[in-house]
Amino acid sequence: MDIPQNDSASNEALLTICLLAAFSDGSKSDTEREEVRRIATDLGVPDPAGLVRRVLTGRAAIADAAAALPGQNEKLLAYEMALGVCEADGQLIAPERAFLENLRSALQIDSSQSANIEKTVEPLVLAPVATPALPAPEPAAAVDNGSMILNYSILNGALELLPDTLATMAILPMQMKMVYRIGKTHGIEWDRSRIKEFLAVGGIGLGSQMVEGFARKFMGGFAKKMGGKLVGKAAGQLTGSAFSFASTYAIGHLADQYHRGGGRLDTAAAKQTFANLQAKARELHARHLPQIQEKASTLNPASILKMVTGSGQP
């Protein structure tokens, strides 16, 4: 679903619903909490600390956020994003299901509408990280993982240039597939849970990353902050593209370094390494922007779904 350019009240309501979804399982880590606070601040939300505090203390009501959305399209969009955020960590647990049921009621979405959204979102977000269609990998010594990481970075930078939520939802599954493929070149096969643990060591929360991707699209706060002034939609998309390119690049190289280092990774060192890799990748984004834009021109919902659920290759 395309993300409309709404007013500030609608944007804050959408962000509130995404944050409520991120914390609906009741067990988010300190990493997730820190990331969500940073996201709200970076987006230029008025009183970001207050918004996050209201969400964490249960004082941000689903009904109030739903009432601030002006029309049915925005309400369907809110449910789609909330479902994507809840499922980013894997299969839904009971508190998340209860949250989504309450959200459906507050948004006045009927069962057929929610079922249609679930049929679209779940195959994408919950796609297996292992893809049988991929050929058996060569040993790490014979594989140029750098080229593979760059290809995934270009793809995810391209996905950020697209206006719809499904493109944003595809970024995280593609990052997980990349980490899986890197592990395979080192003779190690990780499942989704192990990849999630690895990303957490680097300070990367799955739910918060999904929230951040959505929020960049409907709020554009990153473009305002990084440019020093409010800029247009195209500039905001390029900023989002640079962010997804850089995070994918950093995740890939962190995973490769982890395996080459014998599977040892200190949390503090991992976070610093990730930050350094992101900074380097942001500089690379401009160099690869023509490739990113060309890739974006070839993408559509059907091709995105095929990549995530099919070959898994960028």
Q: Which regions are unreliable across 5 or more consecutive residues at pLDDT < 50? A: 221-232
Order of helices and strands: HHHHHHHHHHHHHHH
Our Rg estimate from Cα atoms comes to 19 Å
Distance from first to last alpha carbon: 22 Å
Number of strands: 0
Give the averaged pLDDT, no decimals: 83
Relevant terms:
15 helices; single chain; mainly alpha; 2 domains; TerB-like; 314 residues
Entry summary:
By secondary structure, this protein is an all-alpha fold. It has helices at residues 8-22, 30-42, 48-56, 62-67, 72-87, 94-107, 111-125, 145-159, 165-185, 192-201, 206-219, 221-227, 233-260, 267-296, 301-309. The chain is 71% helix and 0% strand.
Summarize the structure in words.
This protein has 314 residues and is an all-alpha fold. It folds into two domains: 8-125, TerB-like, CATH 1.10.3680.10; 140-309, no CATH class. It is built from 15 helices and no strands. It is globular and about 55 Å long.
Task: Walk me through the topology.
Blueprint: H1 8-22, H2 30-42, H3 48-56, H4 62-67, H5 72-87, H6 94-107, H7 111-125, H8 145-159, H9 165-185, H10 192-201, H11 206-219, H12 221-227, H13 233-260, H14 267-296, H15 301-309
Helix pairs in contact: 1-5, 1-11, 2-3, 2-11, 5-6, 5-7, 5-11, 7-9, 8-9, 8-13, 8-14, 9-11, 9-13, 9-15, 12-13, 13-14
